[in-house]
Specification:
With 383 residues, this protein is α/β, with parallel strands linked by helices. It folds into 2 domains: 14-253, Aspartate Aminotransferase, domain 2, CATH 3.40.640.10; 257-374, Alpha-Beta Complex (Aspartate Aminotransferase, domain 1), CATH 3.90.1150. It contains 13 helices and 10 strands. Strands 1-7-6-5-4-2-3 form a 7-stranded mixed β-sheet, sandwiched between helices. The longest helix has 21 residues, at 36-56. Bound molecules: pyridoxal-5'-phosphate.
Length: 383
């Protein structure tokens, strides 16, 4: 069953499963217990932290294991609400994931948010950020994701991080969709990073965040001295070991195939736009992940397409998993200037490393077969 919804969640990588089972069998004790067996669990946890730091060009003391990106993003904004001066503002890209947007709105309040300008592809231009940082209302912190979950569009996060460093502003990068698909190196250059293991073949309910070298008083949750005092609660070594196994495999054996996967993506895009006239790839000309396509279809609402494709055993999505529960067009596409009636016709296709060229061909054929089944009347967008 061709699975094209990896940006929602990816299947567990076999190396992650093996690693989880091994850690659960061999190192299940509580690392805070005063026994030698527990000390060995702590050593494995520290080794995983060092391994992750090496992948990110970071330092182990800056890494906090969490339950995922949503928890991390909430913790960043809760910290900024506590630690930044009351009048300080935070600049945020309007194409961020809801876990960033809602945490910002609730923790900081709308009045303290500066919305960054984005172009038609949803990209934040470093020159625009530089100008903002040099201006009279310069923000104290900036949040821009690495890769967009709905469109796959890549942000120039490394350059944006450098702009912030020069201006003395903190930079937060949600790298949830980047990690495991593109190299992690350099992310250590951002002050704050969040990620979720299940997006790159690790288990659900695990993730990590990177914090600045000096983040006095920062905590995700209180109630224990675990994670260098940044996150109270018993550590999840099996989850951490499995996450590291998946990420290390992606880094050492998978990201090398990006060029081939870009070719498969591009071939699919060419085929579908020829066989289904009036179909368009959103942000076609922008740098995008090799796995993600936001496809604007010629007619019919996206959820109808998703259902018809599902009936043909092809799993795609209407956008971010969290957003699908909500009515209304995507905030990402709206920020990119798409009209609501166009945005309602956008389906997200997101492949994985195990996706084959034949899967892409099967998906193209399924779209063509489903087209007459999606009623053109659905093209009418009801308010
Ligand atoms: N950030 C991005 C870019 C995402 O795509 C997602 C999930 O779709 C998240 C954050 C939240 O991840 P999680 O639900 O694992 O906390």
């Amino acid at each position: 069953m061709p699975y094209f919804d990896h940006n929602a969640t990816a299947p567990l990588a076999p190396v992650a499963r093996e690693s989880w089972l091994r850690a659960q069998d061999e190192a299940w004790q509580n690392p805070s217990s005063p026994t030698r067996a527990a000390a060995r669990v702590k050593i494995r946890l520290d080794a995983a932290r060092e391994q992750l730091a090496a992948l990110l060009d970071s330092q182990p003391a800056r890494l906090v294991f969490t339950s995922g990106a949503t928890e991390g993003a909430n913790a960043v904004f809760a910290h900024w609400a506590r630690a930044l001066p009351p009048a300080a503002r935070v600049a945020i890209s309007p194409t961020e994931h809801p876990c960033v947007l809602e945490a910002a709105r609730v923790r900081l309040g709308e009045a303290r948010i500066v919305w960054l300008e984005v172009d038609r592809a949803g990209v934040v231009a470093p020159t625009a950020l530089e100008k903002l940082l040099a201006g009279p209302a310069a923000p104290a912190a900036v949040a821009v994701m690495a890769a967009n979950n709905e469109t796959g569009v890549l942000q120039p996060w490394s350059t944006l991080a450098a702009c912030c460093r020069r201006a003395g502003a903190e930079f937060f990068c949600d790298a949830t969709q980047w990690l495991g698909k593109l190299p992690a190196s350099g992310l250590g250059g951002a002050d704050w990073v969040v990620a979720s293991a299940h997006k790159f073949g690790g288990p659900k309910g695990g993730g990590f965040m990177q914090i600045p070298a000096r983040a006095d008083g920062f905590h995700v949750q209180l109630g224990g001295a675990q994670e260098h005092g940044h996150r109270g609660g018993t550590e999840n070594l099996p989850g951490v070991a499995a996450m590291l196994a998946a990420l290390t495999e992606a880094e050492t054996q998978k990201v090398l195939f990006e060029t081939e996967r870009l070719r498969w993506r591009d071939n699919f895009e060419r085929a579908i736009t020829v066989t289904l006239p009036n179909t368009a790839v959103i942000a076609a000309g922008a740098e995008r992940l090799w796995n993600t396509i936001a496809l604007r279809l010629p007619h019919g609402e996206n959820h109808r397409w998703v259902a018809r494709l599902d009936a043909r055993s092809c799993q795609v999505s209407t956008g971010s998993a969290c957003a699908t529960a909500k009515a209304g067009p995507s905030h990402v596409l709206a920020a990119m200037g798409l009209a609501p009636d166009e945005a309602k016709r956008v389906v997200r296709v997101s492949a994985g490393w195990e996706t084959t060229e034949a899967d892409w061909a099967a998906l193209a054929a399924a779209f063509v077969a489903a087209a007459p089944e999606v009623r053109p009347a659905d093209n009418v967008v009801r308010p």
